[in-house]
Amino acid sequence: MLRSLLKVQVRGFSCARIVLATKNTNVTPAINEDHTDLAKELVSGAPKELITERVARIYQEAKAATQSGQHNTETWKIDWDILNKGNRWENDLMGYQSSSDYMQGTILKFDTREGAIRFAKGQGWDYYIQEPKVRRFVKKDYSANFYHSKGPLKHIRTK
Predict the structure, then answer these.
(1) Distance CA 35, CA 32 (A)
(2) Model pTM?
C-alpha cells in the first residue's frame, strides 16, 4: 500500500499541470509581456562584452578524416572568436595554459542552420556563417598503382 501511495505522489508531482487542470482552483495564467525593447544582456544574463565585442561563428563540423562514418556532421554549431594573447597565461602551479575567456570552451549545437541563426539574432550577437566544404568522392582502383608511366619508378624498394 505504501508503494502505491508513493507512486501516486510522484506521478502527481510530475504531472502538476494535469492535477491543476482537474481541480477547480482559481489559477491565473501567466501574462505575456513584450520584452523586445529590453537590452539583450538583461534577458539572457550574458555580460555586455559578449554582445558588443565578440563575433560568433556558425559552422557545420567536417567529417573526421580517420573515420568513414558521418557522426557529428549533421549538426550546426556556434562558437566564438579567440581573444588576443593578453588574455592567456601559463599557470604557475601546474604549468597549464590558463585563460580569462569564459566563452572559450562553449559550443552550442543546433539541428538546423536556420535555428542557429535565429538563436544568434535573438541574443543580439554578431555572427558569420562558415559554409561546409562539399565533399567529393573519387573512386580509386588498386590497379592504378601499377599503371605504366614514363619517369621515375613509383615503388622504390630498398631490399
Answers:
(1) 9
(2) 0.57
Cell of 83: 581573444
Contact criterion met (CB below 8 Å) for 78 and 150: no
pLDDT at 152: 76
Is residue 29 domain-resident? no
How far is it, in rounded angstroms, from Cα 63 to Cα 70?
6
Look at residue 120 and tell me if it is in a domain: yes
Number of compact structural domains in the chain: 1
Asked whether residue 15 is domain-assigned, the answer is no
Q: How would you class 127 by CB atoms within 10 Å of its CB: exposed for 0-12, middle for 13-18, buried for 19 or more?
A: middle
Q: Residue 70 maps to which CATH number?
A: 3.30.160
Which triple of cell numbers denotes residue 27?
489559477
Residue 4, domain member (yes or no): no
| Tens-digit pLDDT profile for residues 46-95 | 667 766 778 899 999 888 878 778 887 889 999 988 777 667 788 888 88
- Domain span at residue 113 reads 39-132
Q: Is residue 12's pLDDT more than 90?
A: no
pLDDT at 21: 53
What is the number of other CB atoms lying within 10 angstroms of the CB of residue 108? 16
* Distance between first and last Cα of the chain: 83
